[in-house]
Design brief:
Largest sheet: 12 strands, antiparallel
Structural class: mainly beta
Shape: elongated
Radius of gyration: 23 Å
Order of helices and strands: HEEEEEEEEEEEEEEE
Helix content: 10-25%
Number of strands: 15
Length: 217
């Protein structure tokens, strides 16, 4: 009987220890993991399968729509409460104007002063902050009836706030990142052609790297 009780006690202790270890492992899960919440911690370079973006007036009646947008970001840290990335490239292509006075087409949309720092918190809140080269800035080159004009914008609040899909697996099904109506102020360019202020919105789907698609915990 004593041997039996001893064996039960040992088994119970082992079960308790295993449970505690599992709990600790769960608590230590990285914010960004590969494929699902139990995947390995994400590292390396990330980019999306697809993306699109708009730079619109506050009313939405005029602006620029880009049917294609992409980025490249290097993961620099990935802990249990937050992850950080260095945004090294961001592109906008296939851009067209709508409702802009005297604007015939869009020459280019370029992101200046890269790299930027992106911080993803547990829960999915994402902040894009300036790096050492200057503020978050975008230059939109428009082809107008007055010739080629550059409209230069800077993030009004200094940084951008986005949301990575998170929580249940269903919410992570498209592994995406979304920015909605982030305010930008015109710092250079004629207001007769360049909208001011401008709201930036973008959605990036299928964010992935060498280990697969990125899951946000």
């Amino acid at each position: 009987m004593r041997k039996f009780l001893y064996a039960v006690a040992v088994a119970a202790t082992a079960l308790f220890t295993a449970t505690m270890m599992a709990g600790s492992a769960s608590a230590a899960t990285a914010v960004l993991t590969w494929t699902n919440s139990s995947g390995g911690a994400v590292s390396g370079t990330l980019s999306p399968d697809s993306g699109s973006a708009t730079f619109n007036s506050t009313s939405g009646s005029s602006g620029v729509s880009c049917s294609s947008s992409s980025f490249s970001a290097d993961v620099t840290a990935n802990g249990s409460s937050s992850a950080t990335e260095s945004l090294t490239t961001q592109t906008f292509t296939n851009c067209t104007p709508h409702g802009l006075f005297c604007v015939n087409s869009i020459g280019a949309v370029a992101v200046d002063n890269l790299p930027f720092t992106s911080t993803v918190s547990s829960g999915g809140a994402t902040t894009l902050a300036p790096g050492t080269k200057g503020p978050i800035q975008t230059t939109v080159t428009v082809n107008s009836c007055l010739g080629q004009i550059k409209c230069v914008y800077q993030a009004t609040n200094g940084s951008l706030s986005g949301q990575a899909h998170n929580g249940t697996k269903a919410d992570n099904s498209d592994n995406s990142l979304t920015f909605t109506n982030q305010p930008f102020s015109l710092v250079s360019g004629p207001t007769s052609v360049c909208i001011n202020p401008a709201n930036f919105s973008a959605t990036y789907n299928g964010i992935h790297g060498s280990g697969g698609y990125v899951y946000t915990n």
